[in-house]
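Ticket opened by: R.M.
Priority: normal
Category: complex prediction / small molecule

The reporter submitted a protein together with zinc ion and asked that the result be attached to this ticket for the collaborator who will pick it up next week. Submitted input follows.
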Amino acid sequence: MPELPEVQTIVSDLRKKILGGKITGFWTNTPKIIKGVALNKFRKEILGFLILDIRRRGKNILFYLGKIQKGKRKIEKVILAHQKMTGHFLIGKWKVVGKGKSQKIIPLIKGPIAEDPFNQYIRVIFNLSGGWQLGLSDLRKFAKLTVGSVEEIENSKEMRSLGPEALSSEFSWRYLYPLLLKKKKSIKSVLLDQEIVAGVGNIYADEALFLAKIHPQKNASTLKIDQVKKLVQAIKKVLRKSIALRGTSIIDYRDAFGRRGGYDKVCLVYGREGLPCPSCSTPIKRIKIGQRSAHFCPRCQKQ
Ligand SMILES: [Zn+2]
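Result attached by the on-call engineer:
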């Protein structure tokens, strides 16, 4: 799933390319991606509006739509997008040919969007003024799009329940330590909880726990203050490093131009089962915690 660095990379790309564009058309072959409103209503709500701002909150993308009246920007509504497991927005140009099962979506520009198979699962296309289209490629079709007023979206339960942004000053050991004392489960599962900290997922939780030398199964309530300090620093460090490298593309994630990120080439433990630990050469282990896997060094990260 795209985590904070991947979503941030896409948001930065989108801001550069499509900010200010007007939504002139909307197409989907996967109506279930639209949540909370009927497809026709969704279309009606967004057509003719300008994309005035694009922001990230946790792993969500918010497209602020509005109009310019007498030279002033007036934001009226928000499209809330969650790319979920395999979704990623792409800026490109496509042509939809045929109907029903034989329908084909043909990329019109050469390069990664046309060549990389993970960019070929186009489920949604927004036509934009200026000629670009905003596509959503999503192999597994779990992505979600909804639209509402700024108030409705920003105050939705989904948004309000999010914890502080992992890279904000609000996310500190002073915030985290007292919360962990109440959590009688593994530190890995606590870090994946978006209500505790927004934006961290499986990859960067594993990477940060390795840097902080904490076993992923360690009971969160037993961590010492010094360990929590190290952990918070480690989380910020791996996220910043990955943003600089434009995210991790172990399987399906691609940036808004369809290109792979660079963090997977420098992963310390994630996806490295059986390979030597970067600090002590012990083979990296992979275990299951709940439904998710965790990668760690059994020597550097003692339980
Ligand atoms: Zn090690």
